[in-house]
Amino acid sequence: METELSKSLGAAHAIFGFTPFPAVAAAITRAGGFGVLGAVRYTDPGDLARDLDWMQDHTDGLPYGVDVVMPARKVEGVTEADVEAMIPEEHRRFVRDTLARHGVPELADGEPSGWRITGWMEQVARSQLDVAFDYPVKLLASALGAPPADVVDRAHEHGVPVAALAGSARHAQRHAEAGIDIVVAQGYEAGGHTGEIASMVLTPEVVEAVGPLPVLAAGGIGSGEQIAAGLALGAQGVWLGSVWLTTTEAALHSRALTRKLLAAGSGDTVRSRALTGKPARQLRTAWTDAWDDPEGPGTLPMPLQGLLVAEALTRIQKYGAEPLLGTPVGQIVGRMTSERSVQEVFDDLTRGFERAVDRITRIAGRNGT
Amino acid sequence: METELSKSLGAAHAIFGFTPFPAVAAAITRAGGFGVLGAVRYTDPGDLARDLDWMQDHTDGLPYGVDVVMPARKVEGVTEADVEAMIPEEHRRFVRDTLARHGVPELADGEPSGWRITGWMEQVARSQLDVAFDYPVKLLASALGAPPADVVDRAHEHGVPVAALAGSARHAQRHAEAGIDIVVAQGYEAGGHTGEIASMVLTPEVVEAVGPLPVLAAGGIGSGEQIAAGLALGAQGVWLGSVWLTTTEAALHSRALTRKLLAAGSGDTVRSRALTGKPARQLRTAWTDAWDDPEGPGTLPMPLQGLLVAEALTRIQKYGAEPLLGTPVGQIVGRMTSERSVQEVFDDLTRGFERAVDRITRIAGRNGT
């Protein structure tokens, strides 16, 4: 499954796999795809360096990339404490009450609150980049629009192409104007931040808007048939995130979350602002229901909401508060019904793709199949 | 573009076109597709007979079908007047006020209020069927779930297969159990009544749920590339509705509506209950905004909402009240940028399909292209 883009990046297959887990990213790359490590959870640059060292040792010289979260809009001279001070007491009380209602214990005094969505803050993302550029990464992706111009320039100086997610054709055009090299067209059905346009409509719109820039189709893709569909729509590759969450290499916080993912149907996700303040598709839980409840205080804008709920999410995960336990995931979760290795998932993708090509050539009345 | 299903129905291409306009349906059939005439607006069976006579004279013996709106759940002994009496005065006032705010004149005394969504009522649909079965229709489609068992039986006695729309795999399974022959998997991005699952995810889920029954992919399809995607996802054909609305054969109520459709982008639709009481994707207008406004009275359940707004829609159309003027249409509306004949649209679809097959076979490294 080769396109100009996959060839130029040195991957055997035009399958890009986004994941927060180094073991998953490395396995995607070893399987012949292009693994992209999400860096948002690395608040300590040393941890990122350690995991990139490990990736380097486990990818046989094959290509991989890094994804940072870095909005182009800059907030000058604002500290995390400044942002914390902007959170209304009503919202803090709502967090406390919701956790108490579900009997979620407090963290011990001084216990680190673990992963905070501080990666949204530009300083953190820049320290991640300082680390990433020390490694032979072959792609810099930005999950929240185009990064600032100096970051794009810096990537290009390192010979690293930059990819950015877009939820609309206009959004994609702005990326192209900002010097982005690859647009990831992220459809409504995708996990994480999405717009309202579904992949079937969005992919060709973005291809038309930014051509000849290469486009990756993202959202709703978890089988080889869906890969064939994405490529038929004009994409030069596909970008899969959700499907790796239930692989054996994935290091989810709790078994309970894995069980919830395996049991969920395609209708069990919701586009909610509960996680970050911007609409992001995730498992529907008692937590998202509370935030989406018109009787509640509602969510705060990014980055306030992420800071507001950071400690709460740590507690929910640490104590396995099952009704509240969730994760960003796309509608494809309905297809994730068994735990398998990345290699098995990957083999299924390439086999399903070949089946879909057989089918479509037969329908077209082409010979040779 | 042949599948088992298109062959069994006698169509050259597995492209099913749904439309309320006989001239469009006939042109789709003549172009080599399968035209399906929506019967919901025919409150007078004589009008339907007249238009089916015309279709018969303009389809050269090629196959076509009819679509009725007939929910399987029966309401015994309830008249239209009974239903009218259930509409709260607050909602009637909201309709009057909204129209007055936009300066929409009243109809003259005794002037017929034109198309009322009385087709939702079972008696009307049954009188439509009495007419339809007098013609050699090759498909009976039901836009709102499976029709009652006796209607399915009656179609089968006439040798006519029955198709029903489904927005989820569970919905599709119920259709299969009700003896339906073909499932139309209608994705979130489609015009008209839709669920929340996008076509990329829904199509293969429905194929898996009801196989070996044939599935048509609907929602987000308006180009040959999107047809190839739908077929790659396992469908035996595609079901297109929106794309015909801006053909030269379409008899829309007003030029203003055609202009609005041509100007709209993929982000200019909304899934709203304003039209029928169930979520249906349509152009976003001042009318849908009013109904979706949390400050307003909100919509009523089907069939109340349809009866409530019937006269208002006639007035909006008759007087061309542009800010309020809308129609059911899918996200593909962003691609509908010029008025063309059905034949031109159809040629574009088949050419685009061949291009997509070329592309996908090249990516797969197959020879023969």
Short description:
The structure is a homodimer of 369-residue chains. By secondary structure, the first copy, chain A, is α/β, with parallel strands linked by helices. Chain A contains 14 helices and 11 strands.
Largest interface: A-B, 55 and 55 residues
CATH topology of chain A: TIM Barrel
Strand content of chain A: 5-15%
Distance between the termini of chain A: 17 Å
- H/I helix tally of chain A: 14
What Rg of chain A do the Cα atoms give?
20 Å
CATH superfamily of chain A: Aldolase class I
Number of domains of chain A: 1
Question: Based on DSSP secondary structure assignment, what is the total number of beta strands of chain A?
Answer: 11
Q: What does the average pLDDT of chain A come to?
A: 93
User: Which stretches of chain A are low in confidence, meaning pLDDT under 50 for 5 or more residues running?
Assistant: none
Written as H for each helix and E for each strand, in order along the chain, the element string of chain A is HEHEHEHHHEHEHEEHEHEHEEHHH
Strand order in the largest sheet of chain A: 1-2-3-4-5-6-8-9
Query: Can you give the helix content of chain A as a percent range?
Result: 40-55%
Question: What's the architecture of chain A, going by CATH?
Answer: Alpha-Beta Barrel
Oligomer: homodimer
Report the structural category of chain A: alpha/beta
